[in-house]
Amino acid sequence: MVDVKSICCIGAGYVGGPTCAVIAYKCHNIKVTIVDLNQARIDAWNSDKLPIYEPGLEEVVFDRRGKNLFFTTDVDAAIEEADLIFVSVNTPTKKTGMGAGMAADLAYIEGATRRIAEVATRSKIVVEKSTVPCRTAESMRTILEANSTGSIHFDILSNPEFLAEGTAIKDLLNPDRVLIGALQTPEGISAQKSLAAVYQNWVPEDRVITTNLWSSELSKLAANALLAQRISSINALSAICEATGADVDEVAYACGRDSRLGSKFLKASVGFGGSCFQKDILNLVYLSQQLNLPEVADYWQQVVIMNEYQKKRFVRKIISTLFNTITNKRIAVLGFAFKKDTGDTRESAAITLIKDFIDENAHVAIYDPKVEHEQIYMDLAEPGVVDNRKQLEKRISICADAYEACKGADAVVIVTEWDEFKSDQLDYQRIYDNMHKPAFLFDGRLLLDAAQIRAIGFKVHIIGKNELAGTA
Ligand code: NAD
Ligand code: UDX
């Protein structure tokens, strides 16, 4: 078993950065070097303003940076020095070619793997941290073995990451489990023990799960598919609630009290976003298709179909409520991130909604507490939304706070569940006073106290709730 003293992490993103910063924080005797090809990102990691917003991240990074935690673009030197290398690069959905729109693009994984093979002059443990299709480790091993010289040996481990954005540091400091998959050979098991020993500096032994390599790879896709499936299930029920007068929060609570079901991840919403759920389910769908399991593929695909339906259903409700037209109306969108406590906008429901509002010729006023303004322009200027920046600037305003966004609005739409949008945090009377009447409010996050908001005078629609609920 190797006593790991030096770790390199390839990929300084939302996963590589926080994950390896926490390892440095908890293991002062291990030198951790996080590398990336993106100079701007590395510069930001070395500055006072980190490239990602995550509660608790600054404390961890500022505590260890320059001591046993380093950020650099010198990929080769870090590979050469490391006993263990995490590969934590992006694995986005392929945009073109075979499997486009479904399969994971493994070009970054392959690029990083080839680099390790070219640079390493001694044996290494190579760890898949990225989320990958089942059996990717086999391709990595083939590349490493074919490109390395005689005496060097590589062990490949799968150690998928289960952190959620917004709670990443909390999740990393106190994980439900750490999963480490390895080939069940003496070398594989020994490498598995080496990585387990790193985590056991702060994670209780019984939370470190060891499995075979393929179970570990598949468990990551499976966990995300199961979580997303719960959200699509409650969102499907939210449509029934709106049509019947049942209340989706009450249904979720009543179901969640069954200990077999559990209460988490049953919050109805305007649809799940984030860089993982859709990508990983599509990955599973593609894998099922490749394995000639069409019924299995269709089953998982339905989770994504329901998510798209939920977003479109919400938009249709907004347009029909606003007398079937939002042309030249001001729609205030509160929240642009895919969830609270992050500045990440990848696959955010806000993007789909705002695109639809723009298509209907509305003017959209956007406020989010953490998302950079330039990021909003980039997301909305994607081809198919509004290609031209000047045109886009005429159609949207990015505001400094919620009051500015809502001023003169015909409707307010809550898309992200930021605490500051709650009924007791924002002055909804002030918002109402400054809006066109009738003043409509659409809550896509079940954030508001409907009775309180209605008492002000708002016409309110909350996802999964029917205005006539409670009446005969
Ligand atoms: P990201 O895009 O934020 O970061 C990936 C980084 O890797 C980028 O900065 C990129 O420049 C860098 N990179 C790519 N190829 C490189 C190379 N050859 N050498 C050096 N750097 C290279 O992505 P992320 O959100 O951190 O996700 C990384 C992986 O983790 C993905 O597979 C994702 O599915 C998985 N994951 C993400 C989350 C999440 O919450 N974001 C959670 C669990 C798992
Ligand atoms: C997810 C997984 O939770 C995490 O384990 C994995 O490592 C990466 O993918 P993340 O996407 O960061 O994490 O956030 P998560 O909290 O899972 O939320 C994803 C989306 O689902 C968000 O848009 C969130 O608002 C939405 N959601 C979540 C709901 O709509 N309802 C819920 O009950 C929970």
UniProtKB/TrEMBL annotation:
Enzyme superclass (EC): oxidoreductase
Residues of the UDP-glucose/GDP-mannose dehydrogenase C-terminal domain: 332-450
Keyword entries, A-Z: NAD, Oxidoreductase
Catalytic reactions on record: UDP-alpha-D-glucose + 2 NAD(+) + H2O = UDP-alpha-D-glucuronate + 2 NADH + 3 H(+)
Keyword Oxidoreductase assigned: yes
Signal peptide range in chain numbering: none
UniProt-listed Enzyme Commission number(s): 1.1.1.22
Gene3D superfamilies according to UniProt: Cytochrome c1, transmembrane anchor, C-terminal (1.20.5.100), NAD(P)-binding Rossmann-like Domain (3.40.50.720)
Known pathway: Nucleotide-sugar biosynthesis; UDP-alpha-D-glucuronate biosynthesis; UDP-alpha-D-glucuronate from UDP-alpha-D-glucose: step 1/1
SMART domains attached to this UniProt entry: UDPG_MGDP_dh_C (SM00984)
Top-level division of the source organism's lineage: Eukaryota
PANTHER family recorded: UDP-GLUCOSE 6-DEHYDROGENASE, UDP-GLUCOSE DEHYDROGENASE/UDP-MANNAC DEHYDROGENASE
Family of this protein: Belongs to the UDP-glucose/GDP-mannose dehydrogenase family.
Protein name from the UniProt record: UDP-glucose 6-dehydrogenase
Source species of the chain: Helicostylum pulchrum
